[in-house]
Structures are given as structure tokens and as C-alpha cells.
Amino acid sequence: MNILNTDIEGLSIIEPKIFRDPRGYFFESFNEREFRSKVGEIDFVQDNESKSSYGVVRGLHFQEGSHAQSKLVSVVSGAVLDVAVDLRKGSKTFGKYVAVELSGKNHRQLFIPRGFAHGFSVLSNKVIFQYKCDNFYSPQDEGAIAWNDPDLGIDWGLPAKDVILSSKDSNHPSFKEYCKMHGIL
User: Fold this and answer.
1) If we measure between CA atoms, which residue out of 146, 156, 154, 143 comes closest to residue 176?
2) pLDDT tens across 121-165, in order?
3) DSSP calls for 92-152
4) Distance of CA 119 to CAs 22, 84, 99, 111, Å?
5) How many Cβ atoms sit within 10 Å of the Cβ of residue 161?
6) Does 61 qualify as catalytic in the annotation?
7) Whether residue 54 lies in the annotated active site
8) β-sheet bridge partners, residue 9
């Protein structure tokens, strides 16, 4: 695998080595030994998969405290714009984000360490999205920030008229509200 560092420390784009021939392709989507040697010591305990349609925006979600999660995210089919926002107190990139297109064609993965909010927008007709987590989901420790926060200024790659949100994702606090709730401002 090839590791591409981003402008945010710890946040990495992973490009697997793909073997192609006339029958199709093969690649290792995860190899613990290689991942640990190139990215770090992570013990994944939960795999998740979601299916979504064009225009769906999921996020910006995170888990807090002892239930914080690192994630390794990828797309099986379709395409998303995947976004990770640095929420690590004291980080020199606090409040900054990285956005990367993940697709069933490019096979890229994004490793998101603990301390980030995460979300994605669906750019294709349908998408199947997978992610590995290093901690179990805990509803009482989940948090979120508004996907369309003006201070973050994320371009989700979709016209506003096409965005589809869950009722839950329609009502998250702003980034400033998050900062106030966490004693950052």
C-alpha cells in the first residue's frame, strides 16, 4: 500500500496495490501487519457498511471520550466526497478539514484517527460505503457538527437543492456551538 500524507497530521490517504489482469482485479483492502508498520498500532473491532443514494450527506459525526473512534473508510461501489474535520484540542490544525474523493474505481481509503468529525456526500447514483472502527459505537457518546457550518466552509460537491439529510443530521450544532460546549472558545 502507498500512504499519502495530508495537510493534517495523522490523517492519511491509503492507496492499495491493485493487481489487474483480463479477469479483473485483486487487492488487499486491509493487511494488519502492513497497516501497523505504515500507519500505526490500531485494533479494529467493528466493521460497518451503508448504502446511500445520490445527494445524501451523512455527518459530521464523531464519538467522544473513552468511546472515540479511529476509522478506516472506503467505497465498494459508487463515489463519495469524504470529509474529516480535526477536533483535537491543541492541534495546530484544529477546525481544519481534508476532503478526498473515494470511489469503487480509485479504491482509495482514508484513515481518520480519533478526535475527528467525519462525514461524506454521495456523488454517484448509489454508493456502498464501508468503514472499520477501533472502538464500539456508543449512542450516549456520539456528537455531531452541522454539515453546512459556514465557519468550516466545506464544499460537499453537490448543489444545495440536491442535498438529502436525515432529520437528525438536519439539527446539529454549529462549529462555534461545539467549541463553546467544549470550552474551546
Assistant:
1) 146
2) 999 999 999 999 999 999 999 999 999 999 999 999 999 999 999
3) TTTT-EEEEEEETTT--EEEE-TTEEEEEEE-SSEEEEEEEESS---GGGEEE--TT-TTT
4) 35, 7, 10, 13
5) 6
6) yes
7) no
8) none
Q: What is the pLDDT of residues 52-86, one digit of tens each?
A: 999 999 999 999 999 999 999 999 999 999 999 99
Q: Locate cell 495546530: which residue?
A: 92
The C-alpha cell that represents 140 in the structure block: 450516549
Q: Which residue among 61, 107, 118, 172 is the active-site one? A: 61
Residues forming beta bridges with residue 157, ordered by sequence position? none
Q: Rounded to whole angstroms, what are the CA distances from 110 to 20, 65, 120, 155, 173?
A: 22, 22, 12, 18, 25
Q: What are phi and psi of 168, to 5 degrees?
A: -65, -45
Q: How far is CA 165 from CA 58, 86, 138, 173, in A?
A: 7, 22, 22, 15
Catalytic pick from 107, 131, 172, 178? 131
Angle, alpha carbons 60-14-82 (nearest 5°): 20
Residues 88, 81 contacting (CB under 8 angstroms): no
Within 10 angstroms of residue 157's Cβ, the number of other Cβ atoms is: 15
